[in-house]
Amino acid sequence: MSIGDAEDMGLSASFHGMTGPLEHFHDDAFLFRLDGYELRDEFVIRFQLGVDGSVLSLAATMEDEAPPVVFMRLSSEPSESPPIP
Predict the structure, then answer these.
(1) Longest Cα–Cα distance in the chain
(2) pTM, whole model, 2 decimals?
(3) Residues in CB range of 8: below 8 A, 6 or more apart
């Protein structure tokens, strides 16, 4: 899942080639609207923030009776591994 800023819809999300707007719902939760696809019309997405306010992950409710799916943020910078002794 990727989050971006689409010119025609503002804040948006993409998931497996499906793109839709993100609409603020409550606190760090947004509605991901997917009109025109054969899935749910919307998903609730909750951003998980670090102490500095950066996004660490997001949790998306994909099915009504299943726990949310957690997507971890992939760093755009190479991670520094500790030296191997």
Answers:
(1) 54
(2) 0.67
(3) none
